[in-house]
Amino acid sequence: MTTAAPLLRVQDLSVLFPPRRGKGPVLAVDRVSFEIQPGETLGLVGESGSGKTTTGRAILQLQAVRSGSVQLLGQELTTMRPAALRAMRRHMQFVLQNPYSSLHPRMTVGAILTEPLRVHRSVPEAQMPQRVAELLRQVGMDPEVVRRYPHEFSGGQRQRIVIARALAVNPDFVVCDEPVSALDVRTQAQIVALLQSLQQQLGLSYLFIAHDLAMVRHVAHRVAVMFAGQILEIGSAQQVFDSPAHPYTRALLDAVPVPDPAAQRARLAQSAQETDFHAHRDSGVPCRFGEDHGATGSAHWHWLAPGHGVSCRFWPPQDSALAGADVAEQRGQPARL
Hints:
The chain is an alpha/beta fold. The chain is built from 12 helices and 13 strands. The chain has helices at residues 52-59, 82-88, 109-120, 128-138, 155-167, 185-202, 213-219, 237-242, 247-254, 261-272, 277-280, 293-296, and strands at 8-17, 26-36, 41-45, 67-72, 75-76, 92-95, 173-177, 205-209, 222-227, 230-236, 301-305, 308-311, 328-330. It has a 9-stranded mixed sheet with strand order 6-7-8-3-9-10-12-11-13, with helices on both faces. The longest helix is centred in the middle third of the chain and has 18 residues, at 185-202. The protein is globular and about 60 Å long.
């Protein structure tokens, strides 16, 4: 059991998108809770549209929050006044998905990296060139590139500049939103290795949002599986990948291609027999614990092992080997044991 105070604590976070284009409001994030310890990486996985990016933006207060709590370094962000929130932003940064669109095309590398230093007054003006050079060396780039523009760099080099910009104000927490999905495989490995090296050197904590499960298994200490705005399973990377308890988690893992075509077809056929989550999400189908979530609007959590929790919505199926498992019940979404 971990007793250290978490760096980040998210409790019952909900985000509601207002109606538009004739469509009703959308509950994009629904009572999500988790914690991240200092120096830890939490991988947030799920299919497109599950609410992963919205969760990351809401944590950073870049997206309006309907309800819930976000505490960073013990400070509540959701009720913080603008001036105080601006000061807190030096402790939390964002690495965006597409390095081709996240850098200002008319600013030089030097200007891009100097801007956060001026905004947060991190270093005196006279020391900014030295700080910019240090940042570039940290991400494996030559400081001589300060006068060049983003279009003069490859995708991997641009993402290194994005990472350097995030590091400029010495943050404690970084949201990495699909940070390597726009890059080729070789460059992906280099950027992931860089992020891991920086984490060890600087003690950073990451929320690593991704759909590449193999990548998440490699970089994350713990993994949260998200579907339709809710977290269905959370645990260590080994627990989630080696002993997936929720059928949705198993379906995600079964969708990862394997070299044997026959084995892949068998896996996909088995996954097709699992619950249709979109169709039955709010249908009132009772779980094995007798809870009618369609009627109550809530799902209890059950702990299979220390730190490994699963929402009991549709879990486990009656024919599952886990159907008779002896688990501990806990109401609400999980933080951490």
